[in-house]
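FAQ

Q: What does a record look like?
A: Structure on top, sequence underneath. For example:
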């Protein structure tokens, strides 16, 4: 998993609440177990018409937001089914940070496991960031995970909270497999002892 330390880039705003995982990545894209290639299906029902042509008014089709790495959105983002394809699609498009008043629990956990930083903030601070994100090519935010700060284009700083364990995992690029491999020596020692005690197993 790619490490997350600081992130500087364009922030896009999706002004919707209760965006569920089927809206993030519709069910027809769930046939694959690959984590790549899903970015084209991200928000497909909002991005394309019935014939598959892009809807030009959708924010991710408008420069510079087509290169956004930060998404600011409404409360209860990621509700619905627990499909892990949702964070995969966001990551494949290029998003590394999501900012919202609240997230659905399973989606929130899946983000951390896939290298995405989900940040919860009060609505007043969200509104300030939305204003920042409306500035086109100047809609650049800097997210510093170590300092737990978001810096806007005008230099204003917003502090955010994050669980210390999850913070370490992101900063060190540790997913569940990576965390397990930290115990590789202890696992190997246990397996050698178990084999000696139960050679028939």
């Amino acid at each position: 998993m790619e490490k997350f330390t600081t992130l500087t880039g364009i922030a896009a705003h999706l002004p919707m609440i209760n965006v569920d995982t089927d809206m993030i990545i519709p069910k027809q894209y769930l046939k694959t177990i690959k984590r790549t290639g899903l970015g084209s299906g991200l928000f497909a029902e909002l991005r394309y018409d019935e014939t598959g042509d892009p809807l030009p008014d959708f924010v991710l089709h408008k420069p510079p937001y087509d290169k956004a790495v930060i998404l600011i959105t409404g409360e209860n983002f990621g509700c619905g089914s627990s499909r892990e394809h949702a964070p995969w699609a966001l990551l494949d498009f290029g998003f590394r940070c999501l900012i919202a008043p609240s997230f659905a629990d399973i989606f929130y956990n899946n983000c951390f496991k896939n290298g995405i930083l989900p940040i919860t903030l009060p609505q007043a601070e969200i509104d300030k960031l939305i204003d920042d994100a409306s500035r086109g090519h100047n809609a650049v935010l800097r997210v510093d995970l170590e300092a737990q700060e978001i810096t806007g284009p005008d230099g204003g700083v917003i502090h955010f909270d994050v669980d210390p364990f999850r913070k370490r995992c992101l900063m060190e690029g540790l997913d569940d497999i990576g965390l397990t491999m930290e115990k590789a020596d202890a696992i190997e020692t246990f397996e050698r002892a178990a084999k000696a005690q139960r050679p028939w197993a």
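Q: Is there anything notable about this one?
A: The chain has eight helices and seven strands.
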